[in-house]
Structure prediction request, 268 residues.
Amino acid sequence: MIEMQNPCRVRLKQRALLVIPYRLCTALRHGFGVNFNAMKGLRAIARFLGEYRAYQRGNDNAHFPARTLDIVPCLLDRTESTPLEPTYFFQDSWAAGKIFELRPEQHHDVGSSAMTVGIISQFVPTTMIDIRPIELELENLSFQRGSIMDLPFSDNSIASLSSLCVVEHIGLGRYGDPVDYWGSEKAIRELKRVLKPGGNLFVSLPIDEECRVYFNAHRAFTRDYIMELFAGFELVEEKYIYGTALFTAYDPARGFGTGLFHVRKGLQ
Prediction:
């Protein structure tokens, strides 16, 4: 007996088959620049060659001869406005401002942007914890190898702690970590464990209308689930990034965004 397939299910499967090549092509496109396309690339090359020939012909500065072996084409930098990634721009500025305001004697960060941590370290002595070591030295910045799944600190030992755009990636294999279905929850548990009573924690997490896993990029959380994960902690401040703007209140109607959370551990 031949089993008849539901037409809706067949269409969903066909759509799913198209999603993977589309997403792979999008990933490659992002690797060459968010706005890269073939025609734009060809126009940029033609413009570069024309400007280079004009520079060679008219260059009267003997200190800087234009040698072909020295060319470094920068084809995607001619933009009408300064390119910025809104999430990192807002979240890193927010966290740095909070830490500068509180001025802890020592700050610890787990897995956030090394550039941001380096800037924070010039105002507050900072220890960076990551599975991947940094190979540069900077005064006031120290590095300690460790995993957010098993932080190398005792319980209730850290007064000021941050982890920005990190927790949502844990357990999805993106950075070489093993697949773990509960990776984000375990990471939050570790951050809570090492924080001192009265200590401050700054985290950012993707927000969506329902909990989702965008494998293998990141997970997204509902606000309710985040509040559940930090039950027993004081919510000092929350802000939300939607598109290119920063908001002071959660708005599920705006869809996917990023939540910024300053929580404090209760005194025991």
Observations:
- The chain has a mean pLDDT of 89.
- The chain has six helices and ten strands.
- Residues 1-76 form one domain.
